[in-house]
Design goal:
The structure holds two protein chains of two kinds. Chain A is an all-alpha fold. Chain A contains five helices and no strands. Classes of the chains: A mainly alpha, B mainly alpha.
Chain lengths: 177, 581
């Protein structure tokens, strides 16, 4: 059963080149995962409702029971990150296996560089957005859509670009085969 | 002599002596030689509220024969209160002694962290760099908007290593086992996982989760070469399984022994009630949070980015393990780093009092371990390549870079405002200031024991009333009476008067969050309360306990009368209760 979830290094790529590209994907997927965690914590976390009527709380209760879904959002984001990384590895592995021996090494090498470059740019952009947007957040349960859009934008751009690139690579490989 | 056993021994001993000296130096950075000053600062800050909630109230209750998790709510864990209560014949239980003990433990914790780095990385320079980085991120970092010196580090025990006292030791055992596969390592890992769980429930659960993932990966993915013959594979699996079983036995035995100590043996007769109380205490504290995450993010955006960066490092170590597992190429060091990463990421999920959970403190040590080990691997691989190519000068440059890394980490920590305010053995000026107690401006809260240094106005305002209250309660206790202290300062009064707590729960009175809970407390007092009560005379202004104070004080009125007016407090008595007794 467990052997069904097993990836083989494609014959068309050298081990070092293959694993370098896999690591680049891990870096990129982790960057995306971190962004998802923060967006979930800021966007979904405060939507929780306090399970008590304010009148039934003591002043200690009113101070301490600021219920939110932050723990759930965080845990979900972490699990999603790992799943995204694994799914991406599987897709990348399939993709490299399909590409002909002549191009696979080059695609793998170029893919690693592109993914690392995109990850760096993405993380810089996201950190910039956080530092710019976070001071405007308030102790409120409704976060403005603009803020959520700004926080989601860097990750969304990368995901769309990634899908387009993968689609093109696969199309080219199909055409060449 | 070179190469002979004798020469090797001398060199080895010299190496060990140097490491021991460095570990002692690291110990001295955290240890508090004059804990009375720190205890005084903490007392002035919050009247030991956080220590009481974290372990002191439970320790006092345990000292009086109450069972943790059965009679007493212990949301953080059972180990610390049991340990401090059990040590009381040799180390009298008091807030100052507990802080002093934890500071010594902290020295040992960070010295052991240096030991972990020495095992994990071959270069001493990188081990030192990692230790300083971990010290900076995990201890000497600002907390709650102040300089993080004496106050932050010791006012909130749940924010420092005390909340996860055995994680470093667990990872040392894990690394040794991952590398050697010896049964002794597996037993040590199991025992340390059990101790982690017993001492602090939420971080302990993370350690147990890490322990489970480690074994799952070891059993399923590690060392299964494709070409291994079926027989060899079977032998290996049996051997790994038996080692795992040994570890599990260690885990189970230590857990049972510790649970029995914590409950004075009642765990053995009431295991279901125990687990209900223990884990119920934890779930009670879930989602207790003073502020929304957005409020924290608004105030600390750069700290948030730093913490998320560290989370990224931890998650990268986890997904690296996932990648290697999928390809069946999992090596011991990657598995170890993945476990450290999993634990680090897990530590940000705080069950008990998760207020503002995304903090550098919780994840910094894990991130430092991963980062330094990865740097070390890169340095070794690069150095090996250079040596093979005969580039001697560049090899030397790499060595210099490693020492530079250590130097920069050390300077960053030792020059940080947090460290500069920390009263360790190297801060003569701060120590002189504290050792001048008692002088004209300072005194001790407990002069006979020279404990808890306070300035005079603080002592007059808070210290003196507490001392008088302790004296009165002590006199009643010596006369064979029982006294309930219905006040947020109850633990220190119970502790120093020797009175058996009416309720050993820190949660009662101090954290009664609903009016229903206040009423339940009132009813409970009506049914089981003793004849004497010590309570603040006037309603506490601007205090979180005001509502509960009003509820209790009003309910006492018909039955109890004021026996004695003390400074700040009233001593009340129920004549009818005395007659019925």
């Amino acid at each position: 059963m467990i052997d069904r979830f097993r990836l083989q290094v494609p014959d068309s790529v050298t081990h070092s080149c293959y694993f370098r590209s896999c690591r680049a994907w891990l870096v990129l997927s982790t960057c995306l995962g971190l962004q998802a965690i923060m967006v979930l914590m800021i966007g979904v976390g405060p939507l929780a409702e306090v399970p008590y009527e304010p009148a039934t709380l003591t002043n200690a209760g009113r101070f301490f029971l600021a219920a939110e879904y932050d723990t759930q959002a965080y845990a979900t984001g972490c699990v999603l990150t790992v799943l995204l990384a694994c799914l991406g590895l599987w897709v990348w592995n399939r993709c490299l296996s399909r590409i002909g021996r002549a191009r696979a090494e080059a695609v793998s090498r170029r893919g690693a560089s592109v993914m690392l470059g995109v990850a760096v740019m993405n993380v810089v952009a996201f950190a910039g957005v956080v530092i710019r947007v976070a001071p405007g957040l308030t102790d409120s349960r409704r976060v403005s859509p603009d803020v959520l859009f700004a926080l989601s934008a860097p990750g969304a751009v990368v995901i769309v670009a990634m899908i387009v690139v993968l689609w093109r690579v696969l199309r080219e490989s199909e055409a060449s085969s | 002599m070179k190469g002979s056993p004798r020469a090797w021994d001398v060199a080895r001993i010299r190496e060990l002596a140097l490491d021991a000296a460095l570990a002692a130096g690291i110990f001295s950075l955290v240890w508090l030689p004059a804990p009375s000053g720190v205890a005084g600062t903490v007392f002035a800050g919050d009247l030991f509220y956080h220590w009481d909630h974290f372990m002191m109230a439970q320790a006092v209750a345990h000292l009086h024969g109450m069972a943790l998790a059965l009679d007493v709510y212990a949301p953080y864990g059972l180990g610390w209160p049991t340990l401090m209560s059990s040590l009381s014949p040799v180390l009298p239980l008091s807030h100052q002694n507990v802080i002093a003990f934890c500071a010594a433990f902290g020295g040992l914790y960070f010295a052991s962290l240096y030991g972990l780095f020495r095992i994990a990385v071959p270069r001493r320079s990188l081990a030192l760099a990692g230790t300083f980085m971990a010290l900076g991120l995990g201890f000497f970092s600002p907390l709650l908007g102040d300089d993080g010196g004496a106050v932050s580090n010791w006012q909130w025990p749940s924010m420092i290593f005390v909340r996860a006292p055995f994680d470093v030791f667990f990872f040392i055992a894990l690394l040794v086992h991952a590398r050697t596969g010896r049964p002794a390592g597996a037993i040590a890992v199991g025992i340390l996982a059990a101790l982690s769980l017993v001492f602090e429930t939420d971080t302990g659960l993370m350690i147990v989760g890490t322990y489970a993932v480690y074994w799952a990966c070891t059993l399923l993915f590690r060392g299964r070469p494709q070409e291994a013959a079926a027989g060899e594979e079977g032998d290996r699996a049996t051997s790994v399984l038996s080692t795992f079983a040994l570890g599990l036995v260690g885990f189970g035995l230590v857990s049972i022994i510790c649970f029995s100590f914590a409950t004075h043996g009642r765990f053995l007769s009431e295991p279901i009630a125990f687990f209900g109380g223990w884990l119920g205490g934890l779930t009670n504290a879930v989602s207790v949070s003073a502020r929304l995450f957005t409020a924290y993010a608004a105030e600390n955006p750069s700290s948030l980015v730093l913490t998320f960066g560290m989370l990224g490092i931890c998650l990268l170590a986890v997904v690296e393990v996932a990648m290697k597992s999928l390809h069946r190429r999992l090596d011991p060091m990657s598995l170890f780093l993945g476990c450290v990463g999993l634990y680090g990421a897990g530590r940000l999920v705080l069950f008990a009092w998760n207020s503002e959970a995304i903090r550098t403190r919780f994840i910094g040590i894990s991130a430092a371990i991963i980062l330094v080990v990865v740097v070390s691997r890169a340095v070794e691989a690069y150095g090996a390549g250079l040596r093979a190519g005969g580039a001697g000068l560049r090899v030397q440059l790499v060595l210099v870079a490693c020492w530079l890394f250590a130097l920069v980490s050390a300077v960053a920590v030792l020059s940080s405002p947090t460290f500069l305010h920390y009263p360790n053995v190297w801060k003569k000026a701060l120590l002189v200031q504290q050792s001048s107690v008692p002088d004209s401006a300072m005194t001790y809260l407990f002069p006979d024991r020279r404990e808890v240094a306070l300035d005079l106005p603080m002592d007059t305002r808070i210290g003196h009333p507490i001392r008088v209250a302790i004296q009165e309660v002590k006199a009643l206790v010596e006369a064979g009476e029982q006294v309930a202290v219905l006040d947020e300062r109850k633990t220190i009064i119970y502790l120093h008067s020797g009175a058996r707590p009416w309720s050993g729960d820190a949660a009662h009175f101090m954290n009664t969050w609903t009016r229903e809970a206040s009423q339940e407390l009132r009813e409970r007092f009506r049914e089981t309360g003793p004849a004497y009560v010590l309570m603040q005379r006037g309603a506490p202004e601007r205090s979180l306990t005001r509502d509960t104070w009003l509820e209790l004080r009003m309910s006492l009125h018909p039955r109890y009368r004021v026996l004695k007016e003390l400074p700040v407090f009233d001593l009340l008595v129920c004549d009818r209760c005395l007659q019925s007794d």
